Amino acid sequence: FRSGMGSNIHISADPCPHAVLAFALDKGSIYLWPKDDWANPWTRGKQKGSTVECPGGIKATSYECYLKPVSSCTPTGKGPRFIGVKRDRGKEELRGTEVVPRVFKELLRCSRYPKNYWIKWWRAQTAAFLVRPSSSTLDELQSLRKESLVGEMQDEVLGSYVRHGDKYYEAKEYEFKDYMHIYSWILGSDAEVERRCPDSSRMLAPFKKQLPRLRAAQRLYLGSDDPAVLEEASRSFSCSGCLVYMNVSRLSKRRPLMEVQKLLGARQMVMESLLNLQLLMESDAFICTWTSNWCRLVDEMRMTVALKASHLSLEVNKRCPRFNWVHGGGAETPDYR
């Protein structure tokens, strides 16, 4: 990948009227990225320069080999080619309702789903279609899970991903203690969120049947690119089996993702990311930040493939946590696209 996995998937699912799958569906076709395309999310286009080590011992020129193919067809170079959206070319912004393929608009209109969430709904459907690990990838994920998972994903598990790394360059970053207040509020051991947020009781009301099981288990699955976060969490969740995490390499120095890829290896990064995605999809509730492409991808996969749309999903915030695009009722969320 030339950027993070969440970012790459969202390039393909990018919510603009002619962006990839929406572009193709409106033409009654399916879009296949030409391998020499500069915008191909799976390669570096003409600059890719090297082969990819894929699960099952296969070598390829694209990281798409980790997933089931989008189509059995092969790009021929004929037909319309996606060349970027108006925003990429410096022109006017596009309204959210313009980005959804026409075939789905009547369905969304009849459902009375908030119009400003249509793009979020469409991006989730696209992500669910694209992120379908191949059988070889699933086999390797099972082996990696046995080797690296500390603790067990049993009973009810609160899942969370703390995105640090180089993210502070482009978005607000939250300390682990900010996440911890929300964990403790959900698990019934801290009233800090209730003091700061008058609506906190109302926010949890739709999930009251789920809360007793989460509170009885007191178990957290935590993913993070920051080793300090795991150290802090181990002190807060000190009871046996209460903290579940992946025992993998994490770099203490903040580096751009592509630097990390060079140090750890692309294949290791992809497999660890996919396992983290799998574990967060299994979790019974989810806490993250919607400014992170990775967190948004996890949330989209949970709401669709994992059938967790009726489960709690919140964004960390200094004052009041915020719902995702399923439960937000049209309220603004930081993932503007």
UniProtKB/TrEMBL annotation:
Alpha-(1,6)-fucosyltransferase N- and catalytic domain ranges (all copies): 119-308
Name of the protein in question: FucT6 protein
Record InterPro entries: Fut8_N_cat (IPR045573)
Any single biological process term in GO: protein N-linked glycosylation
Gene symbol of the encoding locus: FucT6
Taxonomic path: Eukaryota, Sar, Alveolata, Dinophyceae, Suessiales
Pfam families (UniProt xref): FUT8_N_cat
An annotated Gene Ontology molecular function: alpha-(1->6)-fucosyltransferase activity
